[in-house]
Amino acid sequence: MPSQENFISEQDTEGRQKSHQIYLKASNFNKIIYYSFLVQLLFNLIYIISKELGHERLYGIGKFYFDFEESVPTYFSSIILLLAAILLAIIRNVKSKLSDPFSTHWMIISILFAILSVDEIAGFHEIIIDPINNSFHFSGYWRFSWVIPALIFLLIFIISYLKFLNSLPSKYRKGFIFSGFIYVLGAVGIEMISAKLFINDKSSANDLIYNLVITLEETFEMLGVMIFITVLLSYIKSMKYEISISLK
């Protein structure tokens, strides 16, 4: 019989099938996420430096380049966004059972993160760039013009969630705000800098400064989500409410 040190326990009662429980240690889970990110960051930098030195045969390292759509970092970002959505859904489920007045707020954030997870791979936000630019002729910092509706949505979202944020304990309120700030700084703020530097797909891919800015942008985005996951895991633990998932 496996011991609890292996985080798995079995219970066998007469006439019943065995019941398995899996225990997740949040600190170990966080380490896996952060170390996975660091490995990707390292390979991304190796790719950028190699290209700068004129080495074109990189034997798959390019799959770790942060600015490629079909890459390991893209799927990693999608996965951690989906993980945040699942954790938020778990919290919402508990809050709903406790008749918490903000359970709907948790559900909306969960749905939002699920949408962001899909968009990370599908790139729906990029579809609106050309129509907006064609209508308003944006350039420079606003060249990636999807940030304009994003900023409008963000302002409405923040105003709508002020009461929700104030309802959280100070530790988690600060964690939510900080992780959100880091994510938005990368996704919108540094994105605008990369828009200013962008020339075209081919030229920009060979521009060292552009590649470093993209690295910073994606780093802030992933860090923001990872910090948010850390905060959510801590919040779930603080609720001291037994949560179980059963498959029948």
TrEMBL record:
UniProt keyword terms in alphabetical order: Membrane, Transmembrane, Transmembrane helix
Q: Which superkingdom heads the taxonomic lineage of this protein's source?
A: Bacteria
Q: Where are the transmembrane segments?
A: 32-50, 75-94, 106-124, 144-164, 176-199, 219-236
Is Transmembrane helix there in the keyword field? yes
Q: What is the lineage of its organism?
A: Bacteria, Pseudomonadati, Bacteroidota, Sphingobacteriia, Sphingobacteriales
Which protein are we looking at? Uncharacterized protein
